[in-house]
Amino acid sequence: MIDILQSIIPTALFFSAPLIFTALGGVFSERSGVVNIGLEGLMVMGAFVGIVFNLTFADVFGTWTPWIAIIVATIIGALFSIIHAVASVSFRADQVVSGVAINFLALGIGVFLTKQWYGKGQTDMVSQPFFTTDIPFLSEIPIIGPMFFKGIYLTSYLAIFVALIAWYVLYKTPFGLRLRAVGEHPMAADTNGINVYKMRYIAVILSGALGGLGGSVFALTIASNFSHSTIVGQGFMSLAAVIFGKWHPLGAMGAALFFGFAQSLSVVSSGIPLLQDVPQIFLLIAPYVLTILALAGLIGRADAPKANGLPYIKGSR
Known about the structure:
ABC transporter involved in vitamin B12 uptake, BtuC, 12 helices, mainly alpha
C-alpha cells in the first residue's frame, strides 16, 4: 500500500500544479464579478510563451531557463488578459462570449506562430524543462519522505505556496475585502469609494498572470513542447475547480489536487493491481468524467459571488 502511495502522490502533485495556478486565477477574477471562461486560452498562451522562450534562450540561461520562462509567461498572460478586461469591464460585453473569444484567439496565435517560426505544427522539444528533485533532509524521513519530498517537481510546492498566499490576500487584507465587495455588491462598494472598474481590471489581470503561469508550468513539466493539443481541457478543469472549490482559494486548490489525482491514474495504473486490467482509454477520460460528476452532484449548494457575470454601470442599481 505504501509503495502505491509513493507512486501516486508525487504524480498527482505533478499534474495538479498547473491546475492550481490557473484555478487561483479564476478565483480572483470571479470573486471580482468577472466570469473567466478564457482560462483555457490563458493557459495556451502561457504554454506557448514558456516553450518558445525556453527554446530560444536555453543556451543563454542554462538551468535557470525554465524559471525565467515561467516568469515571462506570467507577464505575457497578464498582458493578454487585458483584452478580456477591456471587453467585459470597459465595454460591458458578454463575459462568456469574451472568454470564448480569448480561447480561440490564444490557440490561433499559438498555432500560427508555431508554423511560421518552426515550419511545422509543433515546436521542438525543450532541452531545459523542469526536472524532478529530492528535497534535502525531508526526503529522508521514513514513509512520508519518499511520498512527498522524493522525486518531486518544485513547481508543485510553489503552487501550494501561491494558494496559501492567495487565501491570505483575499481574506486577510484590505485589498481582498475590496475585491470581494466588488464581486458581491459593486454599487455598495462604489458608494464606499472603491473603484469597481479598477478592482475588476486588477483581478482579471491577476487571473491572466496565474493562467499564463499554469500553462507554462504544464508545458515545461508535462508536455515539453507546444502544439495545438498541448492544452486540451486543463483550463476548463481549472474553471471546474473554481466552482467545485466554491470560489475559495484553498477549496480550488483541493479540487485541483483531486483532478490532478484523476489525471495521474492513467500514468501510474500499471503499478496498481486494481487498475492493471482497466482499459487505458477509461483512465484517460477519468479526469473529465470525475469533473462532471463532481460538479453535477457532489458539491452541494455552491453560490457564486452575487455580481458574478454582471457588468457594472456606474450610477445604476
